[in-house]
From TrEMBL:
Gene Ontology molecular function, alphabetical: metal ion binding
Name listed for the protein in its UniProt record: Lantibiotic mersacidin modifying enzyme
Gene3D superfamilies: 1.50.10.10
Residues where Zn(2+) binds: 848, 893-894
Highest rank taxon of the organism: Bacteria
Annotated Lantibiotic biosynthesis protein dehydration domain residues: 147-520
Lineage of producing organism: Bacteria, Bacillati, Bacillota, Bacilli, Bacillales
Organism annotation: Halalkalibacterium halodurans (strain ATCC BAA-125 / DSM 18197 / FERM 7344 / JCM 9153 / C-125) (Bacillus halodurans)
Length: 990
């Protein structure tokens, strides 16, 4: 069959070898002519009778076909329960046909309603009138005349579902004795088939659960289980080498083209010890998956069975690689790291922050039920059984929950078991190192996989599924060219990844057959076969086994440490919203004596060197990247390639490295800063960023301005100005007024930059920001305003009063002053602090909430704003911070080093050396504490934070401020001094 698609692109036959492209027409006529019996009328009930009369002929055909099939049985009839299997088959056919047709049927009902009209006085009666029209064969024939592609799909789906059910029953009969050995003296009369457990491939085949009269179940898989059998032997080998706790081996029966697999139920653990062993085993499996290069081990492929995590789908246990990173990605080294590290297994949570398709966690250990996506949508039928019925798009909500271990009815929080996961990973990793000679041996446990068949997933299955769903829209069912045109978009990838020129024709052929494309190869081979057995050669340069042996040779302490760091970072995101530190406050006194600047510098260098070791470099070393933990503006914790911002992203680390280079004279820190900057630009999507001065476009502008000023580099200044337009557009739609997350921080930052540069364009954007902020704040209910700098009144007042003074805007000055008054009214003299109006009404001593942040705001205001109470408030904040602000964690946002910044700023702005001296001694005590216990960072469960506000970068940066107070305060959004002229500070090209 010639189509525009097959004439323009390399092709494979679009008509499958075993079918005739016109057979379906004759078959459709026969199906529609079959008289309906009472058995089919009984099949429908209230839950499944939508458009029941349309489906009746196809179900009647199914019933008759299966009844005739069962009549061929003689002695074997005792092995099955005929009536229940008929019901299973009817359910499967009906379910599949409904998904193919419901869009068209709803559409046609509305067309009839508008054209010929529907009889009835109620919406339900009019729907029933439309449904009853299908009692006449002519109605269905007319429908299929309009939508012939639908007719072909419906006939083929009916036939292939029936044939697949027959095949399963035949295989069951053939293997009855094998299954009897499997279940040992159980009643194995087959009573039910549950089709549709997973996607359909190769003419509608899918994983199916068989239920027997005894209640026992077994899983039928329409593929070779050689990989599952061999994996069981590998697990046996691992256990024999002493891995503890030992791993359970599921029963698998391989029958070459199909197989039987033990049904694994979700079961509760019985004790805390079992949960600990469960997560130790997870670590072991993660090491195996990493070594093998497994992919697609998502939440549906893991079942928590008591203390045993069970991987139930091993067809992607080994994965090959097209190795198109250089052509497909502007950041190939990062893409390679993401796919070839533990993240590539999909067992761990990972977020690709910019433009990601998935915004929910579907990983094996992290994903769970009830999580709503904002990006993935699903269609739901509303107003059912009425003539007002329609499809509406709703956010997708995850359903699976079998991947999480439970005890006493509650899911175990993996955040409490991170050491067990990493310990299990480390044990298995070192077992591989210790047994590397046997693993590399051609007669060893790795090469035993050589002939095993595996699946290769060239694209995410949900992409294929989305296109198949779209292809059932009525617009694509009237003529072949429209449907073909839909699938033509699969060619787009070939401009970036040339090997797909060989793959796409096979993808399209299987999609046209309404199957998820399916590709297989052997672990020891390189020739790929599609779902219909056709070869695709020359895609891979090496086999999966060769890739595993290469990885074995790369194992070592450095790689082990990197993978464990990734595991810790990833699992730290699974905190169920509890991202604040769990560290109890430790009483802390200032050190008895000061130490030389070199002491602080060495500590900062140690932090810098540790981050340097984590960099992912492009081959030319012109660009570098980091993968780490981020806390978004909505306080959602993710692990991903670092975002651009200063808060916990790339720019914060760039500023730290740049200052470290200046204060040590070591050029490799400057090189790292430049490489990170280049890597950031390669990933940057400013149109997707918020406005924030810490997370967003404001952060980008501020960070580049700071870098340009401290280097006296006008080129970087001009680069910063390139993002002003994006920022201006963004602030006009910003809904967040906060200092850290929204407009207040942006306005304050822009005003300070304008005061330094006198650049009119900066003032214009500041004016736009001020206007938007004022409107947002006017819309807030007074009792919803928090206290504090990062999210509350102190930040609003600082921004409005700073800009209002610079612009001589009386209205904004008045509005800003009102927030000073508001916050003053929430000061508690007994506590010597401002109440935190979040839940609990506590009294905090952090930069983000409480006295230290409010103190910084009052200190900055006191430099220009005439208010007699500012100094009194500043002293209260300073005293409260000194008395109660230390012994928390060490972060900037809500920890000791952030609180120390108030002391440094106070000393700097008042020329009073005492707070600086105290700050240095307190910093020394923090360093001494870290030498014993490690740095306590700003996120519960994580010691892997690199960023400025929550992680080690902020600590290192603050140590440099203790040496040199002219290093600009990030908490105060300060700007460094510069030798650039006024002309160099302005925009050059207008």
């Amino acid at each position: 069959m010639k189509t525009p698609l097959t004439s323009e692109h390399p092709s494979v036959p679009t008509t499958l070898p075993h079918t005739n492209d016109t057979d379906w027409l004759e078959q459709l006529h026969d199906i529609l002519s079959i008289p309906v019996t009472e058995e089919i009328q009984k099949y429908f009930h209230a839950e499944n009778d939508l458009f029941s009369f349309f489906y009746t002929p196809f179900l009647q055909f199914t019933y008759q076909s299966m009844s005739d099939y069962f009549m061929t049985f003689k002695t074997d009839m005792a092995l099955i329960e005929r009536q229940s299997l008929l019901q299973s088959t009817l359910t499967a056919v009906h379910h599949r046909l409904f998904h193919l047709t419901h869009r068209t049927l709803i559409s046609e009902m509305h067309i009839d309603k508008l054209t010929v009209g529907l009889n009835g006085s109620t919406p339900h009666e009019r729907y029933m009138d439309f449904n009853h029209k299908f009692n006449k064969t002519s109605k269905s024939k007319n429908l299929f005349n309009i939508y012939p592609i639908l007719g072909k799909l419906v006939v083929n789906e009916t036939l292939r579902t029936i044939n697949f059910v027959k095949k399963i029953i035949q295989h069951y009969m053939k293997d009855y004795l094998l299954l009897s050995d499997f279940f040992k003296e159980k009643d194995l009369r087959l009573t039910n088939l549950q089709l549709g457990v997973g996607d359909t491939h190769v003419n509608g085949q899918c994983v199916t659960i068989l239920t027997f009269a005894s209640g026992q179940k077994v899983v039928y898989k329409p593929r070779s289980l050689s990989i599952d059998k061999q994996f069981g032997e590998f697990i046996e080998w691992v256990n024999s080498k002493g891995f503890q706790p030992s791993l359970r081996i599921p029963i698998a029966i391989d029958r070459q083209t199909y197989g039987w697999y033990e049904f694994i139920p979700h079961q509760e653990a019985t004790s805390e010890d079992e949960i600990e062993r469960y997560y130790s085993r997870i670590g072991g499996y993660l090491a195996i998956a990493y070594l093998f290069g497994a992919t697609d081990l998502h939440l549906d492929n893991l079942i928590a069975c008591g203390e045993h995590p069970m991987l139930i789908d091993l067809e992607t246990l080994f994965t090959n690689d097209l190795d198109c990173y250089d052509s497909a990605f502007p950041f190939p080294a990062l893409a390679r790291e993401l796919t070839q590290s533990v993240f590539g297994t999909l067992m761990l949570p990972i977020t690709i922050a910019s433009g990601k398709l998935l915004d929910i966690d579907l990983s094996a250990v992290g994903g769970g039920k009830g999580v709503q996506s904002e990006k993935i949508k699903t269609w739901v039928i509303v107003n059912q059984k009425t003539d007002e019925m329609k499809l509406v798009e709703q956010p997708y909500v995850t359903e699976s929950s079998q991947n999480k271990p439970t005890v006493n009815g509650k899911e175990a929080n993996i955040g409490n078991y991170i050491p067990h996961v990493t310990d299990g990973f480390r044990k298995m990793y070192r077992l591989f190192l210790n047994e590397i000679d046997e693993l590399m041996d051609h007669n060893g446990p790795i090469f035993a996989f050589e002939s095993c068949q595996i699946r290769h997933v060239f694209r995410a299955t949900h992409v294929y599924a989305k296109f198949l769903e779209a292809s059932t829209h009525p617009d694509y069912l009237q003529e072949p060219t429209r449907r073909n045109k839909l699938f033509e978009s699969f060619w787009n990838i070939t401009s970036l990844m040339a090997p797909f020129k060989k793959i796409v024709p096979h993808e399209i052929a299987e999609l046209e057959n309404h199957d998820i494309p399916y590709f297989v190869l052997t672990c020891g081979g390189t020739i790929v076969k599609d779902g219909y057995g056709r070869d695709i050669a020359d895609l891979f340069q090496s086999s999966c086994i060769e890739r595993v042996t290469h990885r074995l040779q790369q194992l070592g302490s450095e790689d082990e440490a990197r993978q464990i760091r990734y595991i810790k970072s990833s699992l730290a995101t699974l905190t169920n919203g509890d991202w604040t530190p769990s560290h109890e406050k430790t009483p802390m006194s200032p050190a008895s004596a000061d130490r030389e600047d070199g002491y602080f510098l060495r500590e900062a260098q140690a932090i810098g060197d540790d981050i340097l070791a984590q960099l992912i470099w492009e081959d030319d070393r012109h660009a570098a990247y980091l993968i780490g933990v981020s806390v978004g503006m909505n306080e959602a914790v993710t692990v991903s390639p670092l975002t651009p911002g200063i808060y916990d992203g790339t720019l914060g680390i760039v500023l730290f490295f740049d200052q470290l280079a200046q204060q040590t004279g070591e050029t490799h820190y400057r090189h790292a800063a430049d490489a990170l900057l280049e890597g950031m630009f390669k990933q940057l999507k400013p149109e997707l960023m918020p406005s924030s001065a810490y997370f967003g476009l404001g952060s980008l502008f501020y960070g580049l301005m700071v870098l340009g000023l401290q280097r006296s580099d006008s080129h970087i200044i001009q680069k910063a100005y390139e993002y002003l337009k994006h920022l201006e557009e963004c602030v006009q739609h910003e809904e967040t007024p906060d200092f850290v997350s929204g407009l207040s921080g942006v306005l304050y930052m822009l005003t300070k930059i304008y005061q330094l540069t006198n650049e009119p364009r900066v003032f214009e954007v500041a004016k736009t920001t001020a206007s938007r902020l004022s409107v947002l704040l006017d819309s807030k209910q007074p009792d919803t305003v928090l206290t504090g700098l990062s999210h509350g009144a102190a930040g609003f007042a600082l921004a409005l009063l700073t800009y209002g003074t610079a612009a001589n805007d009386e209205q904004l000055l008045k509005q800003g002053h009102s927030y000073l008054v508001y916050e003053r009214n929430r000061f508690n003299k007994q506590e010597n602090n401002w109440v935190d109006l979040r839940k609990g009404n506590a009294y905090q001593t952090f930069w983000c909430h409480g006295a230290p942040g409010i103190g910084i705001s009052r200190l900055l205001l006191a430099q220009f704003y005439d208010d007699e109470l500012l100094h009194e408030e500043l002293n209260a904040a300073l005293n409260k911070t000194i008395s109660d602000g230390f012994g928390h964690n060490h972060s900037l946002c809500h920890g000791d080093f952030g609180n120390l910044d108030l002391l440094l700023l106070y000393a700097q702005y008042t020329n009073n050396p005492e707070p600086k001296e105290l700050a240095r001694k307190l910093a020394i005590s923090s360093i001494d504490q870290a030498h014993t216990y490690g740095w306590k960072l700003g996120l519960n469960h994580s010691d892997q934070l690199q960023g400025m506000m929550l992680g080690v970068t902020g600590i290192g940066y603050q140590l440099l401020r203790h040496i040199n107070p002219t290093v600009p305060s990030i908490l105060a959004l300060e700007l460094p001094s510069s030798t650039l002229t006024e002309k160099e500070l302005r925009i050059h090209d207008r």
